[in-house]
Amino acid sequence: MFTWDITKLAGPVRGKYFDCYMMVDIHSRFIVGAHVHATESGVLAVEMMKGIFGIHGIPQVVHADRGTSMTSKTVAALLSDLEVTRSHSRPRVSNDNPYSEAIFKTLKYGPEFPERFASVHDAGVFISGFVDWYNHHHQHSGIGFHTPANIHYGHATGVAKERSATLAAARAKHPERFTTTTDPKILALPGAAWINQPKEIPEQSAA
Q: What is the pTM of this model?
């Protein structure tokens, strides 16, 4: 399941904003695509989605809030043609798109996030760098302190085995430092993730 949203980035002068379109695989937290444009439109969203689906495959469900672009006929037509189920946040509910909101918070509360961007190009370069860091270097607490890339590309199981072996060796060498013989639950690999899980899809088969 993918979710997407648009956040505003302050431009060079007061009242000028750029639009950052971002789509996320909610299971892995991997940002599958992020574009910055001077305007918001369904057409630009469709262009982003076509590129993402060509690289990462067509998801079963795409979630978004009820913004103008998210509910546009162009986006609806693309997802309908691809037989992708559309999911939307409930009216007047601000926390129905938590994965996108969490990433935007990480983006904007970071120490390097600037107060303003001089141009669309500058904003795009910054977002590109953030996406690379987030996907490949950020050890996310919600996915067992793996990077989103490790989960997304199937490397996490191997990493988890290495971690477990390292912890076992440490317990054997210094048992007095440990209060348990099992690995911390926080390091467990993530399970299925949904927003507005369809009733006809069993949880164990969700992806």
A: 0.90
